[in-house]
Queue: 4 jobs
Job 1
Amino acid sequence: MTIAVIVYPGTNCEHDIVHALDLAGADSELVWHRDTDLAGADGIVLPGGFAHGDYLRTGAIARFSPIMEAIAQLAHEGVPTIGVCNGFQILCEAGLLPGAFVANRGLKFICAPTHVRVESIDSVLTRGAYIGQVLRLPLNSYEGNYVADDINKIESEGDVTLRYCNAGGSIDVSANPNGSTNSIAAVASTSRNVVGIMPHPERACEEILGSSDGMVLLEGFIASTEMPLS
Amino acid sequence: MTTPRVPDHIRLGMTDDEYQIIVEILGREPLDAELAMYSVMWSEHCSYKSSRTHLARFTSDQPWVVVGPGENAGVVDLGDGWLAALRIESHNHPTYVEPYQGAATGVGGILRDIFTMGARPVALWDPLRFGPLDEPHNRYLFEGAVSGIAGYGNAVGVPTLGGEVEFADRFSKNPLVNVMALGILKREQLVLSAASGEGNLAILLGNATGRDGIGGASILASASFEEGDEEKRPSVQVGDPFEEKKLIEACLELYDRGLVVAIQDLGAAGISCATSEIAGNGGMGMEVDLDKVHLREGDMTPGEILMSESQERMLAVVTPENEADVLAVARKWEIDASTIGVITRGPDLVVYSKGELVCEVPAASLADDAPRYDRPSQRPGYLDEAWAEEPQIPIGLDAGDVLRTLLDDPAIGDRSWIFRQYDHMLFLNTVIAPGHDGSLLRIKGTKKGVAVSTDGDSLRIYLDPRRGSARIVFESALNVAVTGAAPYALVDNLNFGNPEVPGVMWQFIESVEGLAWACEELDVPVVGGNVSFYNQTDGVDIYPSPVVGMLGFCDPMPEHPPRLDRAREDMTVWLVGEDARHDFAASAYDRIINNNLGGRPVDVDGGEARRVIAAAVMLAYETPLLHDISIGGLAVALAEISIISGVGMTIEGVSGRELFDETPLRFIAVTHADRLDTDEPHRRIGTIGGNTLDFGEAGVLSVAEATDIWRNALSGRMAGRSTESTQRSPDA
């Protein structure tokens, strides 16, 4: 079982994801964006960073990288695929997830711990968590403010996977760090095997780093690569 | 009307005497491009001509020093084959001209110094000095610089773990932006910048060469500012963190595969500096063909190509057999590369353009033959007057009221407005994050940890350059010690005014003496540094501002290093160190409450420094919370503990005056136990609990109000809110 970690020029969280997956007992392999073959990958991670410098618009150039066709094909076949931060932005630009990102409310980059509440466990990322569970995960983005034209459809179909909340789990404006619509922090595809998450689960993989709450998500993802969601 | 023609060398910032030295070296008049190269390489910024004599005072002969000053970065041994590379630089003048790009390219430059050594850069720190934030233009400069650091550092993928900040009037027209970087590498990855092997090739990697930044080192960094200097803006380079990120990965792959003989980054003076240094360092020569350089603009003159300071470029020396592989690695990482030269037996650097000889000079002469000046120095007259202005501190002060004012100072209040903009978590090494005394990183796969603290104290140093400078060394040592790391190596950035002013030169010499002495007392090698002179605008010199970056090292790292958020009900509060010695010169109390800057800082004993720092390191392994006492004294340190831990405390037997005393080499310990296991002088001063900072007869302040003031001090000012009254934030 191998997880493909996609590396675009400008990606910078690839080694961190590999480290966290390794702690969770999964093998992973870095795949360069110019490759076109993902044969044998049981799961795909698009890590955080600044793919192609985030020039033009985050993810806008990455969606044309040669590897994208293979990612889309496997995603459509049901292979568990997650995008973290910049990876989430790329999945949106590539049309594999709904919505898009704009600059944070306040127009400043935010690197800070944040709390999220699990809204749905029907996804390859949250299957190991429970509804209402509060996780402490670091945020690290300038364009983390989620927007979508079809927000009502996303909400009504239960695609929202995580929302920003305060430490006690309640959701209000003061607990929304970046102005994200409906405090959305993670969204799943209708098929549930593609998930984008704005905070970084891999940055919360060991207590010495301040939190190990991200492991429940990464372990759920790894389990999904072995056994599909029912 | 005719105006007398200014000779080229004067226009380029050289003196007649310096021109004569060039004529003697070459045995003829220099060609245009040669003169341009000497002018930049012999500028103050590149040649250290006014400081070299004095920098010899620093020592770095400890056995754990692998590479001392002179290379791109200092390197020390962390055991088991692990090395750390560290370096500090300034980007002061570019930041005043264009704050975002000035600060951003400072980050880019220091990173290249680190990965030039073969190390992956793992962290950055940014000490900042700006004018008071009540001035809108200072807010513009400060906001721009922080954005530039964040914009470049985040995108290039190197975490920024903090820094420190001072606001004072003399930085309004001459802000200081220093940047320190740390790299970690295995011994076999170490690469040096000395070319060898006649016939080896010089390959230029990275960005295309353009007209940006021409003369940056000589025009911006080596002269004072005057009105109308906006026209110097074209001398500021523009950074591209994406290009740098690709360059880092490409270079690290080249090292991994053993494809380079030597490598040198292109910084000040661009190709002329890199080619002459890499050849000169190896005792070799080089023949360069400028027609091979990949250019951004086609019609550049040879002088422009040689002097361009376009960012994100490296020069690698490789064997002819490896040329194809090196070019293939460059292609893979999508960076440009061109073979521009060949190593010769030397000693000359020979440069051709369009088949014509444009330069033929001894390679080493550019770097080594620069004049050295022992400039006149004189104790400045302001000192006697300032020393006479003794701080007046009332015995019966109200500690609550004073704290309200001090916590509202933007250099004392919460600085998360700055570091929230920096990615400070990438690489999963950050154990102690910004907002503490020192930052602590783990080295994955080992039990080792490295800590860093950057420190400066320009106003205290203004009052006594020698004592003040020694104190920042001890301060930074204590800051790393409270994380559990022992001081291990130091880099310094010496920011001073115009060295042609004897009073400034005196400050510089005294400061170097203080730094060197303190480092010797702690047995800490000075493995690198940077000198930034000519920080003078409209005839006003900045406060003397040496800034140190201390590297601490621990093996094993404490399992639970002390943190400021670990105070809990019923814990005991201890004060460790000698009794306060009435040290109020340049204290927060005297500056902010009295609006005075006077008196003389107390002297510090080297033996005491060693003992206190060793005690802190030892206690860090078994104590939940340690906190250094510095700006604002004991009161501010205690308030920070209460604010960050979210719990009050009752303090007994400390007078109001003693609460704000800034006597150095003291720290706070907070423990579960009713005893503190240390041989250093210590006394129990209170208990954690309640929701007020209760100083007994000296005064009281609620933790909620302290928190509110502290959180708004910097962020409120940057939001442009009135600084007259502190406003409440909605979630406080």
Job 2
Amino acid sequence: MTSLFEEITPEASGDVPTRKITISINGEQRSANVEPRLLLAHLIRQGFKLTGTHTGCDTTNCGACTVLLDGEPVKSCTMLAVQANGHEVTTVEGLAGPSELHPIQEGFKDEHGLQCGFCTPGMMLTAKALLDRNPDPTEEDVRWALAGNLCRCTGYQNIVKAVLWAGDKLRGEADGGEES
Amino acid sequence: MYPPRFRYEAPQTIDEAIQLLSEGGGDAKILAGGQSLIPLLKLRFASPPLLVDINEIPGLDHLDFAADGSIRIGALCRHAALERSEELRVRQPTMAAAAGLVADPIVRNRGTFVGSLCHADPQGDWAAVMVALGGSLVAQGPNGRRSIPVKDLVHGPFQNALTHNEIGVEATVPAPQGTPLGGYLKLERRIGDFATVAVAASVDIEGGAVSRAGIGLVAVGSKTMDASDAAASLVGGPLTPESISSAADLAAEVAKPRSDHRGSADYKKHIVRTFVTRILTRVSSSLEKAA
Amino acid sequence: MVLDELKIGGLGSSRRRVEDDRFIRGKGNYVDDIVLPGMLHMEILRSPVAHARIKKIDTTRAWDMPGVRLVLTGEMMAARNLAWMPTLSYDTQAVLATDKVRFQGQEVACVVADDPYIAKDAIEAIDVEYEVLPAIVSPEQALAPEAPLIRDDKANQQDNVIFDWEVGDKAGTDAAFARADVVSKIEMHYPRSHPSPIETCGSIADFDRATEKLTVYMTSQAPHIIRAAVALVAELPEHMIRIVSPDIGGGFGNKVPVYPGYVASILASILLERPVKWIEDKTSNLMSTGFGRDVYLQGEMALRADGKILAVRMHTDSDHGAFFSDAQPSKFKIGLMHSTFACYDIPTAHLTAKGVYTNKAPGGVAYRCSFRVTEAMYFQERMVQAAADDLGMDQAEFRRRNFVRDDDFPHRTAFGFLTDSGQYGKCLDVGLEAIGYEDFLKEKEEAAKRGKLLGIGISTMTEPLGAGNSREYDILGIKMFDSAELRVHMTGKAILRTGAKTQGQGHETTWGQIVAHELGIPAEDVLVEEGDTDTAPFGMGTYASRSTPVAGAAVSMVARKIRAKARKLAAHLLEASEEDIEWELGRFHLRGDPSRGVTIQECAMAAYSNLPDGLEPGLENVAYYDPPNLTWPFACYIATVEVDPGTGVWDVLRVVAVDDCGVRINPMIVEGQIMGGLTEAYAMANMQFITFDEEGNCIGGNYMDYLLPTAWETPGFELHEVVTPCPHHPIGAKGIGECATVGGPAAFVNAVMDALKGHDVRNIDMPLLPDRVYKAMTERTDVSGAPPLRME
């Protein structure tokens, strides 16, 4: 929508109060007027059209909607959009650089860490936060960190391998060494 | 999946928040971590007309350890901060044992310790830990602050002792009377499940004897259960197989579980007994090893 | 130089998946990602009670809310003859309830509004008055003489029985039991479970009044069946219906049936002439859409003292919920239940099966399963363990003694199935070797002395995958074949479309590998498309591990048709007769002079630019494949566990899987399927179930109570393989997707039961919750998991 035209739907919006919020999403400042009850997941998906963030359940269990809020994974279905005002949000669309994939993305492909792909964005973001905090995790560390994200297809073994693969690669890059 | 409409306010100070709660009458809700409240809104099990979001109030996210061993936990201290605290592991093993077992790792990034206490879910982990430690909630209202022992805070399922315009601003854990030992055992079918049963048992040891003890029980009644008689029976003597066994029996008597899809009432009572025994036996053998 | 098939991503290549490139970037296109201009949103009001007469529905307040466009009730559906719809099992199912609600979560009304928040607000403003009736939640209750009649809408329905069915040789079986040395008996319940893909069901119906065309984007594992159903039910012309299944976030059978939400969204779009999106929430998905299992068994085995099985006798009672809408295409009322014991050489067997209505959600689906084979194999392997115990025989030895031998194929099973290949003994040996069977038995004995309870469980089975053949398998009369259409462009690149529909199985990757194998066109040069009924050839979709056996075979066959035409083009280019041309991978050459040849790509160019007289231009074709038989993969799963005697909690120590699914197209993907299946097996054994209380309230209708295991609990898996090619499949492949879900649960349960040996326990129903295990262990009793659950 440009500023030249904004359709007014009086009967729907009426006197519902909205708030103006500004969020840094994948490094870009974006603003919106939102009803307070709007969930962050819905703002990201329907408002900002970043549909890589999925919603899988209604009870805060599945983690398909996981995004990073100031670098920490949160379930974006369990946060109001207004609460993200002034914060930095990273979604799966912000994971890759301009031309190349993030090692976590490469790892998921290389180790067959996904099947239907629905849980994958949330898994990868949780994995990113883990590797940011703990660059050299054990298999147990990875399994523990991923326990808030459900996958129905893979049985997790390859997801764990994918995260370890990415950790190896990131450490290799940090040391200036060859990728494994 | 779609919360009902509500008025939303995000005050910058505690006083403003209290003012808003006063205006809201009994129906306003405080939004801290939101990891219990927002799911209730999404399922439309709750529809408060006013949400008072305290996340923008500065100075509430502390986790402070005093020299005497007492601990202060601010209203916006997230579970993850407790889980990652090295100092907590050293200072207060009972809390440290529970910190990683609350909900799941992502929920722990957002959910708060104090919020969990105030939510007063009989299946909540932290209230039992605080009962075991003799901890309190500091509530602030129009007339100032008061301290409420957590054992008196929880009234029933999702009912706490706060007045409608009080905010739990901090939780406090008293200084141990000796070496603080203990543990938290939770029977859950998988990470993120509510406890079938969980037990928090804490003992302070001074000169080989129990100087203070507390036992809190999860999911075996309409509120967090305080096995105070069981705890009291331990005080004054060393931990022996006999004292442990009798405390475990007393704790199981306090448990008033109901049968459900997680297990039968009898089984849950048995687990209380088993977990009390296991935690205290572990403490006892760690003492033997140290001696 | 002959092409290296692995280098072009042919058979046996673990080529990385093509589809991943979009998924890892968050660029998948799932149904909820699709936004159409002017799109509205639909929400469904569901019954809060299990069984009740509807006295009154008042929608006034909902209609009055700003932003509400339409409120649909059963009455409005009835006016259009859409209040009821036919099911895939020749019953009827309510779309929106008119007379009664028959299960908790049943669809009662719909609201269409400008956004889903408003739709949900309006749902809450619909007032329904119910007169609550007693609820029935088990076959035992349903068959009781005084049981209330659930389906009083059906003219000739006098009780709650759906079917009484039998198969096998009763007289022969009775005779065998009469001369048995030992009769082993066991009773159990396979609990109701839900496939529960992480993505729920949903649809966007888009009816265009100007063109009269209806497009429906939806989560369907079988879009062509949906098109046929819409054409038949809604009486719309089939060519004006386009069903598109975009990316699907997991199916596992849940997304096969036609659900009321789809139908209501279609009607809403027709009435409003705007696109209408319906996305189910998780609670609705778990409470109302196709479940799996919920079958009770009484099993008996006639045994000779030396361990030979003489006969098997089984009776099942199955709970189908309020409407018989099982999504199964066989002619057999209880699906392929009688494929049970197919890997064992048994002279005679008899099965009776009774199906009943209850006040529970309808739609028994083949949850990662081929129509009751999961129950069939679970019952089989639990019965086998009980029999081995009754005989005091080693469980591995008992199996080996009764296996169909490698030289006995083709083998007709006691229930009439024809198995065609396998090396059962070898698979078992590989598994026992991998787990270190003898060492574990010693370890177990040692551990017992220290009060530790270790157990080992084995599950071996062959199962029929890949419906169908058209003689015995159809859906509403449509035969269970499948199809592939291959179009080779002039530069030798190609597009392939099939009638299957991937939901994570990796068709976009593996179908290209079959083309590479057949034509030598690199897999990366083949674009695979599925799921759009306007472009894909007619096919029956993806479930029951049928894609590789049927659609995959069609891919081979269509590629061979292309190769036959390319041969003519090659002959023309080489100025030789077809008989003098020989094929090597990716190239034709002159017989006796391999240096003179043309590549498949050169043939493709010729098809558009340099044709012999009389040859039709272009290089494309379509193949419809009707398999001569099902495929029969074999599996041996072995689990070891430790049970905590103080709590009944059990932990998995190791899991070994030996799968023989014939030729593996992409080993990486095959292993991914096996690990996913093992995880669901573990989940069913350990935590995942839906039950009901006495009032018919669904327990397990959300992710707080319906537990899927996380990365933390899920054990590690050790995979092994044996390869026995399928004799009738063009590339020797067999189905694999569901094997581990089917065969796996018994391995875990048998392991726990093995650990409890000596406690006088014969059976604990899944899931083996700690309290059930503890009760069985301490009270020395079997533990039933049958509803109703009594909450105190």
Job 3
Amino acid sequence: MSQRILVAKVGLDGHDRGVKIIARILRDAGYEVIYTGLFQTPQTVASAAVDEDVDAVGLSMLSGAHLTLAPLVVEELRGRGSDIPVIVGGIVPALDIVELTEAGIAAVLTPGSTAAEVVGAVRRVLAAST
Amino acid sequence: MSDNRTLWQEAFDDSKLREGDYSTMSGVPLEPVYGPDDAEFPGVYPYTRGPYASMYRSRLWTMRMFAGFGTADDTNARFKEIIRSGGTGLSTAFDMPTLLGLDSDDPMSLGEVGRCGVAIDSLADMEDLYAGIDLDQITTSMTINSPAAPIFAMFVAQAENAGVNRARLGGTLQNDILKEYQAQKEFVFPPRQSMRLVRDTIKFTAAEMPRWHSISISGYHIREAGSTAAEELAFTLANGFAYVELALQAGLPVDSFAPRLSFFFNAHIDFFEEIAKLRAARRIWARWMKERYGAELERSLQLRFHTQTAGVSLTAQQPEVNIVRTAIEALAGVLGGTQSLHTNSMDEAMALPTEKAARIALRTQQVIAYETNVTHVADPLGGSYFVEELTDEMERQAEAVFSKLEEFGDGSLLEGVIKGIDENWFQGCIADSAYELERKFNSGERVIVGVSDFKEGNDDAEIELLRISKEDEARQRMRLETVRHDRDQEAVDKVLATLTDEAADPEINLMPTLIDASHAYATLGEIMGALADVFGRHTEVPTI
């Protein structure tokens, strides 16, 4: 069975070009991809991830809210007793990567990441979590 | 029948010109435009070569820099810096909660307050935003769509409190809701209910605000979301036709509102295709307005537009190189005949711009305007075999899209566009084009300097970025609390109840009551909530 990945937009950011491209890249790489749609909360993403029994969660964040919202997604997942890894992609300044990592984000993909880099990061995260 | 050159000459002779030395650096005198007598000419139907006969010899484009972050005070300070640096227009960026009609203390606003633009909760913030700025003199543009009507009402209310009559206000409300469903995705109400608000603003400005542009029909976001140039052109103009049909249905004569419609296009990195797209846009609009919608006033036929350089073309790697990309894109906008221009800052692939980065972006426009002499001759690329053919090709591709949408709508572009949205047709086209381009980047068919190739220097230290502190969010929440505490709650409840009642009657124009609600310091979230009680809220079926 192929591994499942939930890609999500949390908060009010409507920019969905990136998340849709990532979804297609992962699908082409053989993963089963579920897209939450826009305007999700940390709670709805965590619930969907647990309900769908996914292997990883990808958050696409372009509005600058990543430091507030991404750690909350991790918290909500752990609160549900889940250790599903969370990857963040989008407009994330280098300075913020350390803080996200400390908050339990498994990987951060920044602008300019190629399809191969995206798939590589997902593979590494999945390998480390099993 | 006069030839086009004669028509152009008449219009040119009627134009007020800027003083200037219209010759090359080496002293060769330059004509205002070149071409054989029977060629197309600027200021002459169908305006392919420019809306005005004299183009930049009369007036340079407005250097309109988009800005907004943190609280209204923060943005007010940036506006004043832009004006000091020689910016000639203002353009307001709102934060995500404001774009979605939510108050800063809404649970969904957590982490988003003041991040992507300025936070506006009530008239109090609007007053701070434009404090000390002479709205009689400088035109202002507001990038707001779902809550365009209530934000516009707050703007009118603050100007009136500052002693400026609404009839004297000049500027632009983006107010282009259709592209929100297609591309930018900051929607609140369902399409038809949103279109009622658009109709109300068109009617209100047509009657009371002769200097105001009621809609800026925007291809920018369609392109940023991943469309091709031809799709940007076609979808934007189709949306424009939909708004025209909406206003006609509301009983407005076409020439009463069409002169106040304006456009907003992207200037991307494919230099000649961008110029061709902008030329084709003018030609198509003029033809359709004249032949299909029966417009007679010249200003109804002349497509005028704002341009912004392509945010998506910027790279986080070697960000200084973005200055070069932006300069090339800005030049395409100018050679395409833009009426106003925003140039992106080099740091915008990572954050909102610092003051310094924004100043360099403005300087880029000033170099084009004052050093290069490209402003001397209108449409300098007109007559180029290549550019003319590419212009025709853009037009052909756009017409094919219009035919499809007419089919969707049984002859109505308004119905066709709404059906295209409901059936995810636009959204699918845009996602497909975005993925196709991404595939070309990944396969090496397209190069991005610093990303796919030429990476030496990528490891240099990151440039200084603008940081929005978490304290800004807390500060804005406290301010909102004060507003709620100090106002007359009974008056707020009353005006919100009136608003809900009026929303239920589609014949009523909501603008007057929205202005009353602003004066009562009702918050944006409360106003949008009162409308949502009647209109409902839109959700999108997620598709990949």
Job 4
Amino acid sequence: MDKTWNNKAWFMVLPVLLLVAFSAVIPLMTVVNYSVQDTFGNNQFFWAGTEWFEEILRSDRFHSALLRGLLFSFIILAIEVPLGILIALNMPRKGWGVPICLVLMALPLLIPWNVVGTIWQVFGRVDIGLLGRTLSQLGINYNYVQNPLHAWITVIVMDVWHWTSLVVLLCYAGLVSIPDAYYQAAKIDGASRWAVFRYIQLPKMNRVLLIAVLLRFMDSFMIYTEPFVVTGGGPGNSTTFLSIDLVKIAVGQFDLGPAAAMSIVYFLIILALSWVFYTVMTNYDVER
Amino acid sequence: MSVADDKLMAERKGKFDQASSMPPNAQAALARTMRRRGEQSRFWWLIPTLYIIFLLLPIYWLVNMSFKTNAEILSTFSLWPQQPTLRNYAVIFTDPSWYRGYINSIIYVVMNTVISVLAALPAAYAFSRYRFLGDKHLFFWLLTNRMAPPAVFVLPFFQLYSAFGLIDTHIAVAIAHCLFNVPLAVWILEGFMSGVPKEIDETAYIDGYSFPRFFVKIFMPLIASGIGVAAFFCFMFSWVELLIARTLTTTAAKPIAATMTRTVSASGLDWGVLAAAGVLTIIPGALVIYFVRNYIAKGFALGRV
């Protein structure tokens, strides 16, 4: 759609601008402020320059939290995306099954994140949870509280449970937009199931898939509440992802400088990813 | 889709046109085999069914627990309550420290939804209809706020709202949640508004409508479903968020989610009440989800599907 040039449109954007400036710009400036200063209490601050940034970028703690976050995100994507496509391909396209599938699949997306954590914490407990109890009956020594591997598996399965439906719904939205004529043409060509998927369904899905991958990557990269409720970042530090570590430093230890420097590094990573997301979205809009 | 693919598709479309000159019976048979073989195999329903069972099992376990007594939860292991009890729900509906949590959550979530949608409506209109200085940068900046990790904002939010004396008020949480909900509402509404042809605006102006009157009387009914979807997503994201809500409240505006975490860390774990509280937080989403089922993908993709 061709748009008219009109700078008065700024007045319509103004309320949003003020609102988001209040809840984003001012807090971010506070963070920037802390990241370059040191304090010995009593509200006395000293210029510290890039000291905190150097400390953070060199610290093993930050590196390992970052690596854990990236590893977690990649595992999540490797499971959720293929699984989501598989389920979306096999969902009914018409009839009574459609609303049932959509509503039931969307259900986990609407549960408060800490309740998701609580559900899985209870579900995985060996004494009272269905999953933990079943596994121990099968002779598996499952214990997510003490075994780091089990904690990781629990958190990953929880995230798959929580968010795969997002991939499913997005792929499904892409799939239903394919006209029947395409399938009929493929049938006449004698195309195999794989060829239909590769040359008709995948090209139609690739943009929604890209959106799904980016959203899942960013949201899993900043995951906090669910693993915090289930494992509290433990055992040890094994499930301490970037957000959990940041809140520990900022609120738990009240180390303002390092926490602020870490926030900014974290925010810059997210900013770069947002830019990729934005470019993808707007390119799509142009082609539309 | 690339040019080569388009060519291929045009070729296939040609073959399809040939096929449509077939007798109706053959066409119907073709459509049937196509649906059977090309599109989906015979056991297609197995995968979604298994997936839905996987989704519902943990939820079922929570519901199951919420109807048991604590003694039964801890002593016996059963797939359904042996002595069903409503005691856990009774505790929540009679104890103010529990039901106040729900009221607090609903108050700030509704405030946030109203603020977000009202502020986003004109902005989304501006983004969908006009070009103006810095519009693309602004749109991108809004997106970065939706993507920003709440953990980054916890500490500065606490200090900012302390400075304004807003800690432990509903409006503090409502405004703080605007951080990610306003951008979300702007993006979703912009997606819906761009689907309305511009000619409608122009015709209305020619007919002598003033802008506010046009916006309320003509434009808003046209994007009513979009407003509904945006409101639903604001409601939802404010409802599921815990970290910021918990940081900004202590007692008077404490959300239900935070009340639950407190109970988890308290000494005697009241599993039954915890499960009942969890079940009650799922209900609002489960009730409205049916109305937005066709727009859920669009909402999660920020209005871009």
